[in-house]
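lol so apparently i was supposed to do this last week
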Amino acid sequence: THILLLLKSMLLSTSIIHTSFSSYRGKPFKLIHWVKISTILIFPLSPYCRDLLKVKKKELTPYELLCFSMRPMEETRTAIRAAEYMEATLDIIRQNMSRIHKRSLGATDHLLPEDLEAIARVTGCAAQIALLTCDTIPFIDQYRTISGVCNNNRLGASNTPFSQLLPVQYDDGISSPRGWTSAVKYSGFSLPLVREVSNKILHTANENLPQDNLYSSMLTLFGLWIGLDLSNTAMSRSIRSFNDGIDCSTSCQQAEPCFPIEIPTNDPRFEDTKSCIPFFQSATACGTGYTGYSFGIPNVRSQINQVTSFIDASMIYGSTDSLANQLRDLTNDFGLMAVNQHYSDDGYDLLPFQNATPNICATRSNVTKDPSVQEVPCFMAGDSHANENIALTAIHTMFLREHNRIAKIFRKLNPHWSGETIYQETRKVIGAFLQTIIYQDYLPIIIGPNAVQKYLSDYRGYDDTVNPSISSVFSTAAFQFAHLTVQPFIFRLNRRYQQHTVYPNVLLHNSFFTPWRIVFEGGVDPIIRGLISMPAKLNRQDKLMHDELRERLFQLTSQDGLDLASLIMQRGRDHGLQGYNAWRGFCGLSQPKDEKELEVVLNNQTLAKTLISLYGTPNNIDVWTGGILEPFVPNGRVGPLFACLIGTQFQKIRDGDRFWWEKEGVFTERQRTTLKKVSLHHIICDNTGIKELPPFVFKYSDEYTSCSEIPMFDFSAWKDTSSGKYFMFFALIQFTYCDRGHHP
Ligand code: HEM
Ligand SMILES: [Ca+2]
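anyway here it is w/ protoporphyrin IX containing FE bound
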């Protein structure tokens, strides 16, 4: 590292660079040298999470687990690399220009538009944002692409920037997170340390938590599950600062992309205020931040969503073609998803294993303190978070089984269908199941009937002017409301819905990255029973985030855990989200200007006082913090601000989706009528050994009904009545156009 740093400073000061630079103007080919230099400089300085884990160690730190679980996927790495090269190239040019002209200059002050275009092209940035030609893709009107491209060109596709509902606000106006420089003031006040807000407002012990007497833990986990369909923020590829090689995992120095969470005085857990909770920034999207100059759009930094914004079950099937193919069972032509070849769960399938090294899920011997136990790899699914906790893994597993169950039904129903048709038709049905369950059952409970009426009343058809991309404020703040409704335990119940005697409840921090608990400790059923029959934690102003998430996040044994509340606020600042009042204004809500008015909005005097003592003004309250503190809207589980932001987002991903299940022509009328009848209930009954369950699985109740009392989901509307001849022809075209197992 030191040699590279030395090399970099030498390169920057040598006459070679000065000479080539002073003669570059009007000769864009020279710019390629700059790009090359930037790639040479960045590349070796950028260790990734993977590299952290190369050193064989007994136990991973919480930071390493976070880093690894949030590492960018393959195609995302290409997108991020392009932006990093472009930014580094412009930075080197800027430094040299300033040196030559002996004054500070912007990167593009002396560059011609064609030079910028050339840099964008050579770094790969131009390719990331160029419009696509969609009409050459076969069957583009029939099935969604895996990456979501060509639903409406790049809008809503994976690896594109989050949209912005309000202008982004950075310390330097372009890229530095809010709060990066303490001298920068907002409404006359510096932002408080996020850990201080977490300690003073969020802090809650694990014990005596308020329980939701209306809704079950399934409501919470289903929220997490669908959140993964919608957003997964790409982290910076590098865990080391670009300019001086500081390692974000070990140093508390602030240097892009390290944005460490500082420790306030009198912190209940960390005694040393010079220590920190490691944090690395999200990756920059091409054409934004300091790479934005050449594209004629406001050059503020934007972050990348690695997954498709549409509700298309991307957490099952993947958001990139390479992952989607890995997840399929291509050993036959039956349209199935790959399942685990080593273990099963009482006759039911499990998710396949990843073959990644190192195996971050080899946590069993550490947790059980028994070195002789058998370890297993992490499970593989369409989303990278599948092993984050075992309740989430259980839901993933159920839906994998549902795909294969339906695929087998379709093969019987339509023997002339190719494996590719079965896969695509099944994937289409699963996507529609999710859309139906979310809008019919989930959202009304969360945002309440008034917001449903305002944002989600009748569907009026597809609108190609609506941008379906997930917005930054939705993913980084509003849809993270449910972190306050997570129980500190994963409940595991036996067939009689009593605590399992052999495999009892597990504290949440003992459930992170532990797929072996599913393989060796009773499988999926006990966990699903726990989710559907135990209440959710209630989000209450005086009982916010318990210690499992605020003090022990990703802590498997003795290491210092992370603090989720601090991470969320720091992420919001990294993404340049404006403060609470700006968002209240966006939603047409009142904007409290002092403690008294805040007290009225929150209906809580003590809370308003503490917030003002921390932030100085209601304007600056981190939007996630303000949102989670608001009293609920009538018959909802979020306050008015989040009801508006969540309602707005779900309206956009419905109206801006060319494959929305209610859109004319996507399904037949008979199929639509059938799809309305689906519920999560069906999916549990059909894919687990659970045969008695509460009548409505999001509701907390001690009544149980038998699966046999619910009519089976009827697939007869999918019987293909067109002639076999036509389908032979169709299959032939498919076969001609694409490799087997590829999207048509
Ligand atoms: C069950 C326990 C849960 C754990 C351990 C957990 C953990 C995390 C972590 C570590 C992050 C990344 C924080 C950062 O550095 O920015 C995150 C992000 C997020 N979480 Fe959770 N979470 C849980 C439950 C939930 C639930 C119930 C929901 C929603 C209903 C949810 C929604 C989200 C969303 C939307 C994000 C941002 C995703 C992105 O764009 O990357 N989480 N969560
Ligand atoms: Ca999706």
